[in-house]
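Before surveying the methods themselves, we first show a specimen of the format, giving the amino acid sequence and backbone structure tokens:

:::
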Amino acid sequence: MNSHRKLHIWILSQQLIALVYELCDALPKSEAFVAEPQVKRAAWSVQNNIAEGNARRGRAERHRFFNIALSSLAEVDSMLGSLPELYPIDQATLDSAEVLRKQITAGVLAMIKKGRK
């Protein structure tokens, strides 16, 4: 068990969560009940669905959880793309989050493709 902790995409998703928290720390208190919990949940969903997909033995089940991870990555992308329009956000941290998001997306897609063989 816990083999997901060895997956490169799971490790990257930990880093994404940390960056999301860092970005949320810069948000005004008015976002404490709106954008902040939503983007945090989406980031956690990426990591948890990678872990759960990795634990599943059936191909269809694995794909289902990996696809949920991809959807959560899209949600993180959507929110992090919109927040800078509303608030001053550190661009370097935002850029780092985008690099991670792209790497995780590519990795999840590779896991799906690998499962088709």
Notes: The mean pLDDT is 94. DSSP finds four helices and no strands in the chain. Residues 3-115 form a domain with the de novo design (two linked rop proteins) fold (CATH 1.20.1440.60).
